[in-house]
Amino acid sequence: MRNAYLIAYDVADPKRLRRTYQKMLGFGDPLQYSVFYCELSAMEKQLLQEALWEILHPQEDRLMIVHLGPPRSAPARRVEFWGKPPIGPSTREPLVV
Fold this sequence. Notes:
The protein is about 25% helix and about 25% strand. By secondary structure, it is of the alpha+beta class. A four-stranded antiparallel sheet has the order 2-3-1-4. Helix 1 (about 15-25) runs antiparallel to helix 2.
């Protein structure tokens, strides 16, 4: 079963910030700088967490994961945007591990 997540990060080092952004592109869609919407299975979430722990430095960086429930459910629709519309969902192919 897949779940929707809102993932935001604050990375102190520009090199790690670029690496984090590139890694996140493989798992979700950017909504704003350093904020992604991801629909992940439990295995994909674990893979993402492991990949990010190889990049991030917990003493300097922060990562927030907000569980929104099943995709397109009432909790996932609680994310509200004002101003310029967010980037639309991508047409990415599923990640095969």
